[in-house]
């Protein structure tokens, strides 16, 4: 569970980095799907081949030849893979609309509320209900706090942009005043030059009073030049500060660079995408539970149940097939304002490919460890790995500057949400039980 928590909390961050750099999500998800499937193959050929090959618990390669007997369980595993693929695809757009932290929090919370309840009853109530369901309640509270956090953060961003527009207007007005002052100053310089030329041409000595006035003027002119240099240095420093994370200029620059345009989008759209992703996430773990434990007795008598490694293989195969099919379509018919592309353009787009492949491997290994933990200690308790927003939010704040320069209300909601996740994770893990 601990390994899965770290892996599943890190791969969304890698994909979010690519989206913010402007790489098309279709290209990223195609690369991601490849290594996500290869991770399942790697686990199956290593962990799945360890131990004795018995009729009750056959090794991966042995069970791979028994598809004619265990196809009902294979269908459950494939259905779980399809659900997860849809959830991941929706999440990638959700990150752009409502941010990495809120997407992970709301999606994971909905997954735990629904998925944990289903797994509890599927597993014959082996987990401690008095401990399990208070943990589910904490996840539900975290989902509500996540929604409030997004609304507060969106309001902060709108206020930053509005203030930036006002400041730009004032700056333009000040620039006009500076031009007028420069004109008057240049006129003053002309009068002094005329005075000097006159005295030199007349070959006469400057009067003491005139000399003092001239020296005073030149001293003031030198002082003005020093102040101008100082102001220019400060303006350069302020220009650098404007591009810092959390500023209006940073938000606008990010919007111009990223592949999914979200400024001005309706909040309801972003929340709707995240809710859909959470519902998809809620179904894939119960599907694996059915595939590995045959709770509905769909297998013929004497046919061994799918070992977790075989179930993970079919799960990842389905996830790969659905992900590739959808994203090839999105290459030519994209959504959410993403630019269209082609297979040739995808193959030629090598920038960021290594990160996308890394994200797929992290996710594939994280899913495998989650299924292993669920088979050992109950799938309801394994839902504690959905506390992955703790990891994702940390990455989001450190790498992306999410919530920087926000209001006190936003910071209070962020802290409350993370605290609720810590409590929920601890409670769910403590409900673990040994599967007989």
Structural notes for this entry:
The protein is mainly α and 436 residues long. It has one domain. The protein has 15 helices and no strands. Helix 2 crosses helix 12. The two termini are 19 Å apart.
Describe, in short, the structure shown.
It contains 15 helices and no strands.
Indicate how many domains the architecture comprises.
Answer: 1
Strand content: under 5%
Shape: globular
Helix content: over 70%
List the helices and strands and how they pair.
Elements: H1 2-20, H2 25-46, H3 60-64, H4 67-98, H5 100-122, H6 129-202, H7 208-242, H8 248-257, H9 267-293, H10 308-332, H11 343-348, H12 353-377, H13 379-382, H14 389-400, H15 408-429
Task: List descriptors.
0% strand; 436 residues; mainly alpha
């Amino acid at each position: 569970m601990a390994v899965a928590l770290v892996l599943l909390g890190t791969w969304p961050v890698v994909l979010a980095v690519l989206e913010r750099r402007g790489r098309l999500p279709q290209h990223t998800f195609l690369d991601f799907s490849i290594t996500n499937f290869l991770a399942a193959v790697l686990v199956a050929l290593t962990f799945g081949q360890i131990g004795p090959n018995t009729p009750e618990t056959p090794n991966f390669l042995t069970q791979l030849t028994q598809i004619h007997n265990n196809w009902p369980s294979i269908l459950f595993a494939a259905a779980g893979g399809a659900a997860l693929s849809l959830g991941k695809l929706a999440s990638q757009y959700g990150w752009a609309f409502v941010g990495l932290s809120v997407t992970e929090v709301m999606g994971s919370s909905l997954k735990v509320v629904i998925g944990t309840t289903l797994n509890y009853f599927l597993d014959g109530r082996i987990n401690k209900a008095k401990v399990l369901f208070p943990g589910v309640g904490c996840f539900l509270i975290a989902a509500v706090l996540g929604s409030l956090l997004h609304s507060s953060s969106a309001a902060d961003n709108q206020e930053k942009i509005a203030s930036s527009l006002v400041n730009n207007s004032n700056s333009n007005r000040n620039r006009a005043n500076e031009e007028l002052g420069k004109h008057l100053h240049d006129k003053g310089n002309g009068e002094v030059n005329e005075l000097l030329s006159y005295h030199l041409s007349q070959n006469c000595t400057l009067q003491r009073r005139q000399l003092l006035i001239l020296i005073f003027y030149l001293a003031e002119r030198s002082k003005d030049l020093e102040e101008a240099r100082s102001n220019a240095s400060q303006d350069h420093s302020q220009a650098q500060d404007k591009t810092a994370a959390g500023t209006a200029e940073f938000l606008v620059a990010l919007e111009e660079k990223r592949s999914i345009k979200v400024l001005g989008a309706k909040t309801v759209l972003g929340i709707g995408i995240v809710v859909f992703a959470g519902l998809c996430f809620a179904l894939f773990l119960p599907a694996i539970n059915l595939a590995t434990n045959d709770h509905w007795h769909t297998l013929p008598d004497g046919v061994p149940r799918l070992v977790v490694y075989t179930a993970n293989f079919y799960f990842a195969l389905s996830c790969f097939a659905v992900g590739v099919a959808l994203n090839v379509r999105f290459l030519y018919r994209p959504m959410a304002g993403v630019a269209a592309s082609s297979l040739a353009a995808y193959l030629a787009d090598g920038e960021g490919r290594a990160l996308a492949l890394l994200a797929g491997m992290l996710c594939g290994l994280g899913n495998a460890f989650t299924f292993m933990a669920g088979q050992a200690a109950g799938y309801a308790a394994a839902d504690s790995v959905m506390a992955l927003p703790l990891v994702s939010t940390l990455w989001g704040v450190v790498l992306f500057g999410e919530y920087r320069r926000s209001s006190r209300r936003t910071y209070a909601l962020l802290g409350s949400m993370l605290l609720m996740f810590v409590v929920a994770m601890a409670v769910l893990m403590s409900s673990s039980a040994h599967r007989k």
